[in-house]
Amino acid sequence: MFIGFVEELLVGNNKKNMSEIKKHWEEIYNKSNLNKHTWTQDIPETTLSIIASLNINKDSHIIDVGGGDSTLVDSLLNLGYKNITVLDISENAINITKNRLGDKSQQVKWIVSDILEFVPQQQYDLWVDRAAFHFLRDEKSIKQYANLVNTSLTKNGYLLIATFSDTGPSKCSGLEVKQYNKENLTKVFESGFNREYCVFEDHLTPAHTEQNFIYGLFKHRQEGLIPSHNLTEDRFVKCQNSIVLDSETSCNIENKGCCCD
Ligand SMILES: C[S@@+](CC[C@H](N)C(=O)[O-])C[C@H]1O[C@@H](n2cnc3c(N)ncnc32)[C@H](O)[C@@H]1O
Predict the structure, then answer these.
(1) In angstroms, what is the span from residue 95 Cα to ligand 1's centroid?
(2) CB of 94 closer than 6 A to ligand 1?
(3) Which residue ranges of the chain lie beneath pLDDT 70?
(4) What structural domains and CATH numbers belong to the chain?
């Protein structure tokens, strides 16, 4: 019954309205479905490594958009970050993460919302989104998301956005996604951001298949200035699923002995 229900919803997410999309995600994260998903990472190494490279202070306001049951929030708390928000359309996903964290969950701000309905009550220094933005496929929603990021980030804020690359899968959780490369990802955000660099990651799913992700790091640009992207070369990493990360410096995308080949 569960499989039939999900399949029914997967006939092209273009046609689905928001309540159907929410239903889809609530079902994916329902209580009897605590298994790993294709996107699951035991430790979100690439994200953590990029965040470490920013040298932002521990009071920085960080939001993980479409955080799901990711352990990013666990790692950020362990690293001492104090102002973390996790937003997801699925309340089940948020509850899984809250339960995992136990008492520590009180240190986090939790928001159950469709990102396109989110009205931020504050600004953020870092906006992270791994594999949520790519579900937006029509131009209007993509623009709305880009505007939201633009108005929600502080003057020197960073956007770290990860999507399937154009050599990655065309579906995620059975839903169609928009794939990105360096050029079209930059284009979406360049009215307000300069690109710092991109990292391409071969994510090894729990079933040991590879999915190529692009991680774009963007820095907020002062209003009125023209785009000025860094010419830093792209980096390529292969991430395993079960590395134990015990300190901020133990995972570095330059460090071939750690998380990357
Ligand atoms: C593929 S999962 C990625 C989860 C997590 N970021 C990670 O890396 O493990 C996509 C997540 O985005 C959430 N999501 C999908 N569409 C969303 C929307 N419109 N607004 C907010 N969250 C959304 C889903 O509930 C899900 O948790």
Answers:
(1) 14
(2) no
(3) 1-15, 31-34, 240-261
(4) 2-239 (3.40.50.150)
